[in-house]
Specification:
This protein folds into two domains: 190 residues, Aldolase class I (TIM Barrel, Alpha-Beta Barrel), CATH 3.20.20; 27 residues, no CATH class. The longest helix is centred in the middle third of the chain and has 15 residues. The N and C termini lie far apart (47 Å). By secondary structure, it is α/β, with parallel strands linked by helices. The chain has twelve helices and eight strands. 55% of the residues lie in helices and 16% in strands. The structure holds SN-glycerol-3-phosphate. The site of SN-glycerol-3-phosphate has 9 residues, from helix 7.
Length: 229
């Protein structure tokens, strides 16, 4: 399971990258707009931090325009993945880019039929929006399961990238289903660390260690100095 971070906030990306478990990043026009910074500069900086796939979305609505944007965005950094919306022009663009060896993330996926269309167009990633489906009163995780199963039926290489993840239970279920990738808001990535018994146990170990009356470095250095002469 690959962990991508779903943000364009450089501080969040830097902190998540410092944990050593970050595989990539996804952005979209809304996330970029929220930061109020230059799009291309931001994408370059994210790529430098993440050193893995970074999705940058085109906004043109026709294939010619999408291809022009995509080819420029790809020149920003080798880690740029082109994100296109799941509309006919986006699929046409995906097919051309894929045939040129450009990785494509097809976004705004809300059905199995759409996911199969993206796979047939050579998408590297398909992004079903779990939370937004839940918002409509339907079952986002059921869709994720269906896409993973149908892709398995036909041995599609397209990776399923669970997007619009809203809480850590979404994440747990995405892992159970076998989604290849999940893209997480920073807050949820942090929540994944959390367990009250970890905090309680850690506090207990520290309290007991106080009674030892020495720090680890001092005792380890004394031992090593004695042994090494
Ligand atoms: O990056 C696309 C997706 O993750 C958006 O999530 O929370 O805006 O539905 P959300």
């Amino acid at each position: 399971m690959q962990f991508f971070i779903d943000t364009a906030n450089l501080d969040e990306i830097r902190e998540a990258a410092s944990w050593g478990i970050l595989d990539g990043c996804t952005t979209n026009p809304s996330l970029i707009a929220r930061e109020g910074r230059d799009f291309a500069e931001t994408i370059y900086e994210i790529c430098e931090i993440v050193q893995g796939p970074v999705s940058a979305e085109v906004v043109a609505q026709d294939s010619e325009g999408m291809l022009r944007e995509a080819r420029l965005l790809r020149q920003i950094h080798e880690h740029v993945v082109i994100k296109v919306p799941l509309i006919p022009e986006g699929i046409k663009t995906c097919k051309v880019l894929a045939s040129e060896g450009t990785p494509v993330n097809v976004t705004l996926c809300f059905s199995v039929n759409q996911a199969v269309i993206a796979a047939k167009a050579g998408a590297t990633y398909i992004s079903p929006f779990i939370g937004r489906i839940d918002d409509t009163g339907h079952d986002g995780l059921a869709l994720l399961q269906d896409i993973v199963s149908v892709y398995d039926n036909y041995f599609f290489d397209t990776k399923v990238l669970a997007a619009s993840i809203r809480h850590s239970q979404h994440m747990l279920e995405a892992m159970r289903i076998g989604s290849h990738v999940a893209t997480l808001p920073f807050k949820i990535m942090k929540q994944m660390f959390g367990h009250p018994l970890t905090d309680k146990g850690n506090a207990g170990f520290l309290a007991d260690w106080e009674t030892v009356g020495e720090d680890v470095e001092t005792t380890a250095r004394r031992f090593l100095d004695r042994r090494n002469g």
